User: Which sequence fits this backbone?
């Protein structure tokens, strides 16, 4: 009997020891694992994604601003001058385009008004190219197409007439006509005007002719003229006096206009452009003077 009790006691102690080992062993598979620690959240944006504005460093009050105090003033002045020149050139080109547009609109309106009659001569029924060779009726205006076609009959070496709306313009460089800065005709200028007058009377006999003086934007060198308009008026008057006293052109056909520097053909930004803008234009109109 005592031996059985001892065996039972041994079994109880063995079971208690086993239970204790199960509860306290670190390698026990039945032991509940401790809760995992959460990984820290990163605010760094993934590659290719911009960071939120509130996470960016902010400029402080002491951050220095860009300064132009150390920029060379001459460089700024040169850049400003170039910008002004480019602006002026663009304005000149826009003005020239506007004049071309106005001229084209005038031609279109005249063509629409003339209708089929513009395609043939009004007196002979021949095509305009042939009718242009015949003199127009006395005192009557000539059609725009006839004026343009007759322009090809002008023979003026070194001078290219141009058709502008209903008129023919003969641009004569002022440097070929006058001494620099004056209204004094050069000997060569007198020869040019003599030839131009003869051709005008041959192709456009008796037509009204406007004498228009133009100049560039350079300051006047001659103290005799206070404004560009005064100089261009004097030059137009000199051409008028020569045509009426030395050629067959009658004073009743002529009138004078002084434009000054108001109507340049091209930009005045270059020496070549200024030389082209210094000119006298003889403008031949479709109408003929009374009695011519």
Assistant:
């Amino acid at each position: 009997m005592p031996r059985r009790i001892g065996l039972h006691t041994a079994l109880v102690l063995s079971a208690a020891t086993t239970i204790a080992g199960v509860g306290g062993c670190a390698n026990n598979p039945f032991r509940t694992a401790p809760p995992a620690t959460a990984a820290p959240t990163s605010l760094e944006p993934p590659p290719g994604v911009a960071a939120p504005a509130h996470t960016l460093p902010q400029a402080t009050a002491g951050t220095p601003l860009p300064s132009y105090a150390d920029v060379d003033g001459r460089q700024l002045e040169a850049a400003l001058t170039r910008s002004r020149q480019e602006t002026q050139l663009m304005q000149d080109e826009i003005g020239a385009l506007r004049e071309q547009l106005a001229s084209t609109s005038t031609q279109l309106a005249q063509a629409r008004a003339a209708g089929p009659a513009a395609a043939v001569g009004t007196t002979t029924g021949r095509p305009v190219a042939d009718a242009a060779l015949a003199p127009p009726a006395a005192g009557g205006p000539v059609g725009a197409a006839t004026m343009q076609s007759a322009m090809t009959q002008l023979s003026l070496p070194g001078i290219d007439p141009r058709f502008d709306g209903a008129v023919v313009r003969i641009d004569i460089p002022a440097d070929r006509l006058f001494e620099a800065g004056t209204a004094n005709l050069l000997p060569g200028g007198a020869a040019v005007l003599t030839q131009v007058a003869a051709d005008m009377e041959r192709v456009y006999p008796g037509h009204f002719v406007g004498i228009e003086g133009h100049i560039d934007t350079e300051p006047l060198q001659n103290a005799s003229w206070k404004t560009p308009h005064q100089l261009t008026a004097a030059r137009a008057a000199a051409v008028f006096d020569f045509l009426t006293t030395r050629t067959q052109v009658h004073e009743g056909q002529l009138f004078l206009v002084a434009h000054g520097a108001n109507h340049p053909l091209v930009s005045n930004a270059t020496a070549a452009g200024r030389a082209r803008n210094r000119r006298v234009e003889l403008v031949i109109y479709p109408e003929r003077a009374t009695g011519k």
